Amino acid sequence: xxxxxxxxxxxxxxxxxxxxxxxxxxxxxxxxxxxxxxxxxxxxxxxxxxxxxxxxxxxxxxxxxxxxxxxxxxxxxxxxxxxxxxxxxxxxxxxxxxxxxxxxxxxxxxxxxxxxxxxxxxxxxxxxxxxxxxxxxxxxxxxxxxxxxxxxxxxxxxxxxxxxxxxxxxxxxxxxxxxxxxxxxxxxxxxxxxxxxxxxxxxxxxxxxxxxxxxxxxxxxxxxxxxxxxxxxxxxxxxxxxxxxxxxxxxxxxxxxxxxxxxxxxxxxxxxxxxxxxxxxxxxxxxxxxxxxxxxxxxxxxxxxxxxxxxxxxxxxxxxxxxxxxxxxxxxxxxxxxxxxxxxxxxxxxxxxxxxxxxxxxxxxxxxxxxxxxxxxxxxxxxxxxxxxxxxxxxxxxxxxxxxxxxxxxxxxxxxxxxxxxxxxxxxxxxxxxxxxxxxxxxxxxxxxxxxxxxxxxxxxxxxxxxxxxxxxxxxxxxxxxxxxxxxxxxxxxxxxxxxxxxxxxxxxxxxxxxxxxxxxxxxxxxxxxxxxxxxxxxxxxxxxxxxxxxxxxxxxxxxxxxxxxxxxxxxxxxxxxxxxxxxxxxxxxxxxxxxxxxxxxxxxxxxxxxxxxxxxxxxxxxxxxxxxxxxxxxxxxxxxxxxxxxxxxxxxxxxxxxxxxxxxxxxxxxxxxxxxxxxxxxxxxxxxxxxxxxxxxxxxxxxxxxxxxxxxxxxxxxxxxxxxxxxxxxxxxxxxxxxxxxxxxxxxxxxxxxxxxxxxxxxxxxxxxxxxxxxxxxxxxxxxxxxxxxxxxxxxxxxxxxxxxxxxxxxxxxxxxxxxxxxxxx
Length: 827
Description:
The protein is mainly beta. Helix content is 14%, strand content 38%. The protein is built from 14 helices and 50 strands. The longest helix is centred in the C-terminal third of the chain and has 19 residues, at 793-811.
């Protein structure tokens, strides 16, 4: 019989015998009938001399989403025999479907005994059946099986479907749409890339990027009425707001070269503001009278076949090119150069009256950490007079004007300005990745630290012209929060954002309005409006709703511990969906790379919910050295290279297991990338508590990384401050995993892109070689053509599946996935 309600089944309750070799399908979704008719037969044979048969009617297409929309299910008998619905029409198409869910990688056979004229699809892909059977390989996720069949008038058809697995896997056949969180949920779908609020705070530009299965992408932009959410404009242009007139603008190629076009979001009226624009990126002047262009100029070129490298950075493609600032007058079309020289100049800010340009340059200084000095200048755009405001400050980054242009807000690390903003212990060196803000008074050149007693690490900032407040996005432990800073008294207030990690924000220059978007541990992106007067957020766009449709996520809980040093070490853990506290689960431990904490986000390089959905408990620990916990905490990263950090990871793992008896202590894995990959390797020299480990782009020899990576020496100015192979031999050798390879017993998987310019692939090669010579269990997989991050869509899937298969082999005693990806070879 046909039910009008969808049959709801729990993930652990199937319509079949769970542990049997053969899973017989007993419940199906159904949609139909859809009447189809024979076409007019102009000839008895087609152009290929093929005679028309009723099977041609199957070529009529039907969207498979009709199955969900119909809400109908059909029940088979206890033996799995199903009488299919018929139709009074001469010919009709019907759809029936079910889902297969496997708890592991498994190969098997799908058997479909049904109507003679039918087609079978698995996840939308047609299947060729031989004698009613086809081989299927299931990864641990949900698969949709759809059968499309043709019936003739009142014809009776029957169906029986089953799946036989080759291994002892738990395969469930169900009509329930519930699915586990997978890579496709991480990669595919629509995401916000940027957002911008109009000066009056009424309209929002939202830029999207949509990724389709297979990796193809498209981009588009919308202008949205903030009051009611109405989409006023949608196109493929890169829209931005004019500084004050509430018009959007973009550039396009026209009959007279590049055109600057303004767009009224309400009337849709367009106006060509300028033609024959120079090539290059530009900023609007605040008064809308001119544009400031940043023009790239090519440096001297070497012969392709042989090159002289002038400085370490000269190995980087394009390093010899320079950037200079030019001004374009919109009224006259005059285009003139503002900066010239051998060092690039960068626009920092423009005063609100449009008169003053704030720009900077960085002069190399390779003999002293951090190997460059920053100069910040103020240019009077009317007279071209230059004032040098910051001269040769080693640890400053950039600056912006106060609304009245009498002060500067400078982004720097704690060591800047003779350490006036430092808050670390005696003997420590500041972590230059821990962002700080300083106030610079133009009249007396005084410097005042603003965030010295503010533990979060500053990521971005804006000095708002409307309310004269400074707005900050900052890492607060594993979150990124928004704050307002009152420059008159230095008080900092946390804004009541609704997401764990704020990705971007925009503030109106003429109204107390903000928009921001972000995501959290268990949801994808959401866009909000925020009233700065009453601190009220309102959700405008919820992409998570569609991205997580039918997905069941496990719980995420905070878990902190007090270390042997007396510090509270923060962390969190993820549980598998439908978690059973009476079971024993394998666990994976993850920790920071570089010096940035492992953020509380759903989507990242190692999405924790994907691992949890595969049946692992995931423990995220934030050990010493991470930013966002205060300057003293982050300074522990400097000149440590595993000291204390490794002890805390080991201690935290042991204490977590003791507090949570559902962890199988014999099946714990760990993983990390870059500095986290170094930590993975280093940990195995200190402990045997891990049953498997994964190091992606990890550093094995601090010395070779320091000298070979594009940014090895400059990152080492942070992690190895003032320490070099010639004055700190013990640190460079004793802390390097390569020099301790004989202590490693844990099976380590090394993953590395062959084109990695940050951590060269040799870091994995030499450690893999060492372990092979020592006879230790290990594996090495290189990803062709990829850099430090694996970005190619298909390669990302293979790269992730390699990690999943490695942990399945060692933490679940299921080597089948690994052996399928990398079959054993006798060489």
